[in-house]
Amino acid sequence: MRRRLLALVAALSSLPLALAAAPSAHAADPTTMTNGFYVDPDSSAKRWVAANPGDGRKPAINDSIANTPTARWFGSWSGTIGTATGAYAGAADAQDKLPILVAYNIYNRDYCGGHSAGGAASPSAYMNWIAQFAGGIAGRPAVVVLEPDSLGDYGCMNQAQIDEREAMLTGALAEFNRQTPNTWVYLDAGNPAWASAATMAQRLHEAGLRQAHGFSLNVSNYLTTAENTAYGNAVNRELGARYGYTKPFVVDTSRNGNGSNGQWCNPSGRRIGTPTQLGGGAEMLLWIKVPGESDGNCGAGSGSSAGQFLPEVAYKMIYGY
């Protein structure tokens, strides 16, 4: 009942602003409809802790990682996607908590990098998948990070492929606007080391950012919150100057406590960052990537696959060595 009343109040009090803003400016604010962020009960860190009760690393990993609100990623491994997102958003809603979901299934995913290659079988298959993703959430409050890395690296793509990708993202945002009135969607904008603020502003705009609530930065990367905040503000200056609007942004702080050493794939000596919270220089600081999950067969994760939980990497990340 509390959520419904808050939603009604928010809708009524914000109606004039919503009509004047971009099409994505939903009347409801999911952060006011819930009481804190949702802790994924089935994260890779939670599963490892449950399976290793006698491991000496367990207390630190349990306290510092497994019980911090972190996003759940959804892709081809998630089964029937509408059922999966519906169950997750529903479990969070039952606890009056705000879930963070990542949509990670775009056609030709990680086309240039390759470590996380995959995704839907075709653009039309992706559009069907993302429509079901949104439909599963429906009217429940949620935060969605849309397709990490999808706008970061165009280096190996031709113009037709770029146009195709941007059209998929625009279509995805339209689906969320149509089906999820209480969800804030952040279109991913890579990180400051990938593209200039001017370039990223153009890519975001061409991919339909005007329809999104905002954009996300530093997903699965290590750059400091200060670097990302400066970059996000620079992107907004470009958006304002070129297109006449700005957007809020969020920063993935899960692994940026020591900043970056210039490597992106399982670098050693990194550290967990500020836990998930509202504010902190951005609209929100979020743990989007689970600390300890591998970036791929590289660096400190040699021999692992992307997404595999590596307890020793997680343990060292807690202490920064």
Automatic annotation (TrEMBL):
Its EC number is 3.2.1.-. Keywords: Carbohydrate metabolism, Cellulose degradation, Disulfide bond, Glycosidase, Hydrolase, Polysaccharide degradation, Signal. One of its GO terms (molecular function) is hydrolase activity. It holds the Pfam family Glyco_hydro_6. The active site is at 149 (proton donor). Residues 1-27 form the signal peptide. SUPFAM superfamilies: Glycosyl hydrolases family 6, cellulases. It comes from the Bacteria. Gene3D superfamilies: 1, 4-beta cellobiohydrolase. It is an enzyme of class 3 (hydrolase). Belongs to the glycosyl hydrolase family 6. PANTHER family: 1,4-BETA-D-GLUCAN CELLOBIOHYDROLASE C-RELATED (PTHR34876:SF4), PTHR34876. This is Glucanase.
